[in-house]
Every structure is written in structure tokens, then in C-alpha cells.
Specification:
10 helices, 2 domains, methionine biosynthesis, alpha/beta, binds ligand LMY7XDAE, Aminoacid_DH-like_N_sf, 3-stranded parallel beta sheet, 6-stranded parallel beta sheet
Length: 281
Amino acid sequence: MTTKLDGKKLSNEIKEELKERVRCLQDKGITPCLAVVLVGDDPASQVYIRNKKRAAQKVGVKTLDNVLPASTSENEIIDLIYSLNNDPQVHGILVQLPLPQGINEDRVIQAILPSKDVDGFHPQNIGKLFMNKGELAPCTPNGIMHLLAKYDIQLDGKRVVIVGRSKIVGMPMIAMMLNANATVTVTHSHTQNLKEITREADVVIVAVGKAEFLTGDYFKPSAVVIDVGMNRNEAGKLVGDVEAASTADKVAFMTPVPGGVGPMTIAMLLKQTIEIAERSI
Ligand SMILES: Nc1nc2c(c(=O)[nH]1)N[C@@H](CN(C=O)c1ccc(C(=O)N[C@@H](CCC(=O)O)C(=O)O)cc1)CN2
């Protein structure tokens, strides 16, 4: 029997707690405010932004829309970020990724004031995370840590294998797992004999962006499988990076797609926006 790691349920619980924290802030005359920067017309990004804004509204976090055409120059985006940095009503700044081709993502992220970097992508925040002194952490790995804690999954001394080394998930996940005293292995597109490595793991975090890339035989029966993937298969169905049909019922714990890691990402975004607002008191 595989236990489902229900991110949707936990994210709803977290959002209920956040509503209360927003009420406390409002009593002090503060409305937490998230500035959203969306450049271009990537359909997936438009859906994610819509979901983020909807969740923010439910919790009581105000959002400020900044929707720019794909033709916007890098310097224009950076100028917008500088103005949001200087806007006292803005607590968090979110730049939806990916940015259109030709825009240097690193330069844009580095323009965000680290104290308003609600996505935790600024090198200063990533550096602090690796020093175990993190304040603002990338939302997806942060959500995964909350989900594992909720289900009492111990990490101290456990073998954790991270499949994928992206800036959004794999890289910060390394830091968080090390901070939790796990023994961490990172695998990527150049890794040989991947199956031999994942089969030894107590926890496997898969973030490669390839539909159903890992099948059930990549995991041992006691494994905890965290699927960060969000892909459309040939039939247009939303599937993860792990093949659910061959994995479910073969491992101890697994996140569903949808309803696993995705909703936790949004809950963490709102939590961090509120934390920044609370620090302003
Ligand atoms: N600035 C950022 N950009 C991106 C991030 C990020 O954390 N910050 N992560 C991803 C996309 N992402 C958030 O932006 C994200 C993806 C998916 C979900 C989600 O809730 N998914 C649902 C299913 C949604 C659907 O039906 O399509 C689920 O898993 O249940 C939330 C956030 C890239 N860019």
C-alpha cells in the first residue's frame, strides 16, 4: 500500500493558517502585497499566475499585476523591478519563469531586492540557504520539505537522491536536504546507471521535466517518491516525471500529479509573502 502525500490537502490547511496571519497584519494596518511580473504569453505561465493570484485573493494577499509583452527588453524588466523594490506597499516580487528567449534570467533575478525575493532565487538567498541561514527559500523545495514533515518522514541520515539539477528545484533541494542531515546524491542528464543509484535511495525527488521518465523499477519498495514533474502526455493528460501506473502500490509514499508538489509551491509563495510583511512591523 502506497500512502499518498496529499499536497492539495496540506496546502489548504496552510492557507487557512495564513488567513489568520493576514487578519493580524490587517489589524495593524498592513495588507501583504505580492507584485507579479509576467513577461510574454507562455500558456503554462499564464495558468500558474492565474492560480497564484486566485490563491492569494483567498488568503487575503493583495496582488499587483505587471504583465509585459514578449518584446519587452531586459532593461525595461529590470527598471520595473527597481521601481517595485522601491515601492513600500510591495512586500514580495515574483518574476514568473521561464522568461522569453534572449532575456538573461540571472540578471533579472539579481535585480530583485533580496528581502523582497519571495521566490528565494536571488544568489544572496541561495547562498544563505547553503549556509543553513536561509530566510527566503525557493517555493517548490520548501513545499516538499513541509510535505515530508507533515507525514513524519525522517531525513536525518537517510539516502536522498535528487534527479535533476535545476535552479528552481534540484539545486536548492540539495541545500535543504543537507541542512536536514540527509546523505545527498544529485543525478542529472550525464549520470550513468541512474537506476542503480535511485534503487538505493530512501527518498527520491524527481524534477527532470520529462513525462513518465522513471518507472516503478527505479525505486525500492520502502522508497518515498516525490514527483515534481508537470507534463502533458500524448493524450493531453497531466502526468508527472514518474510513471504513476507502474510506481503506485510499489513504493511506501508518493506524491500525486496533480495535487502533490504543485499546490505546495503556491502555499509557500503566500507564506513567504506574509512573512516578509510580518518582518516590516
Ligand atoms: N517564479 C517562478 N517560476 C516558476 C516556478 C516558481 O516556483 N517560481 N515554478 C514552476 C511553475 N509553478 C510555479 O510558478 C507551478 C507549477 C504548478 C503548480 C500547480 O499547482 N500545479 C497543479 C496542477 C495545475 C494544472 O492543472 O495545470 C498541481 O500540481 O496540482 C503550481 C506552481 C515554473 N516557474
